[in-house]
Write a structure and sequence with these properties.
globular, about 180 residues, Glucose Permease (Domain IIA), 8-stranded antiparallel β-sheet, binds zinc ion, 3-stranded antiparallel β-sheet, mainly beta, 15 strands
Length: about 180
Amino acid sequence: MLAACATAPTKPSPTVSAAPAPAHSALKVCAGMGVSNAPKTTSDGRIINYEATTTVSGAKLMRAPVRGCLSSGFGPRHGGAGRMHKGVDLFTRTPGKIFAGGAGVVESVDTQRGYGRTILIRHNARVKTRYAHLSAYARGLSRGDKVRRGALIGYTGESGNATAVHLHYEVLVDGRPRNPMTVGR
Ligand SMILES: [Zn+2]
């Protein structure tokens, strides 16, 4: 599990806008970065057919549980030859709030190799979400806590194998990573 974000975003030029739109209405691909596995966007960078939430095996989830832009997409890097990217990266420039993607129970709050400070939430028997590279956890957050969708759970950072402040977000169904941008469609 080394190198959760083998090609995590590097710091962009100072002119890049980090938080172009609320996570609840639209999501943009980050401008001024080389974004791997980027979804199709409109000319102003908005992801086409983006929906703020989806339902995955009975769990209602946010596709992007921070305010930021998509700096790396899901899937194998470099056209299939590279390392699998098991989630999406959401760049926030500076430490920003991370919200629980869905209602559930906190399964772990700990530091993991490559991922850095990490939270895992179990939403139901099949669905979990993982949040990695945090700078800090929400105060008092502990294993076993029940959280609502949208609850503050931590702050983005660059702990573990990361080169810019972002959230690495994974949606796991039966333990297998799925694309947070399209899962549930
Ligand atoms: Zn990542």
